Amino acid sequence: MKTALVIGATGLTGKHIVSNLLDSNAYAKVVIFTRRELPLDNPKLVCKIVDFYKIDEWAGEIQGDDLFSALGTTIKQAGSKDNFYKVDYTFQANFLKHAAANGVGRVFLISAPGVSVRSPVFYNRVKAKLDTYARTLAFQTLVFFRPSIIYGNREDSRPGERFGEKLLSFTANWVPSMKRLKPISGDELGSAIVNCAQSDLAPGEHNIEWSAIFNLL
After folding, report:
1. Which residues, including other chains, have CB under 8 Å from residue 98's CB and lie 6 or more apart?
2. Tens digit of each residue's pLDDT (9 = 90 or more) over 24-55
3. Phi first, then psi: what are they for 133, rounded to 5°?
4. Prediction pTM value
5. DSSP state, 142?
6. Per CATH, which fold does 2-215 belong to?
7. Count of CB atoms within 10 A of residue 35's CB?
8. Buried/exposed code over 118-134 (b: 16+ C-beta within 10 A; e: otherwise)
9. Long-range contacts of 85-93 (CB under 8 A, 24+ apart)
């Protein structure tokens, strides 16, 4: 059986990824790299408390088969564009680099729809830059998930996302061309990602858009 590695394990989607991995018979061990303990008691779970600013000190511990990255924040939560960039790009890029060097074979990464390095939206440019960097690394399989708004009970309040979720849910149900923007819950996305990892997935790059994500449930 495999070893799964998870970053972003305490977030809305990350905690559901971890829960699904722990329930899966495909994984003997689930190793999470986090700044604080996850309140779970499971013999398969290994929690490593780390400082992402000092990744070179513990990079040798990034050993496993499949990497699941749900790390992410918002500019408001991070406090500045610079801090947002550190979490959404620098921390993840560094982890990906060491994972590839240590022989991790597959990566499952939460990105976003329509990202571009030329986008006028800073968030989309950062996501596109991470996607581009991930493609340069020697992973056997690279899977990008591109959901619309992800909703659910968060520790941090995001009223803008709650409003957007309600608006997009209504619009997606009534306007066929807007279905690709249908929101998804963190619970559903976490399940879809782990289901994808357990499917008959061919090596190479895969881009999982909204309809394909829902088809994995």
Report:
1. 55, 59, 62
2. 999 999 999 999 888 889 999 999 999 999 99
3. -65, -40
4. 0.90
5. E
6. Rossmann fold (3.40.50)
7. 9
8. eeeeebbbbbbbbbeeb
9. 85/126, 88/123, 88/126, 88/127, 88/130, 89/126, 89/129, 89/130, 91/7, 91/52, 91/55, 92/7, 92/130, 93/130, 93/133, 93/134
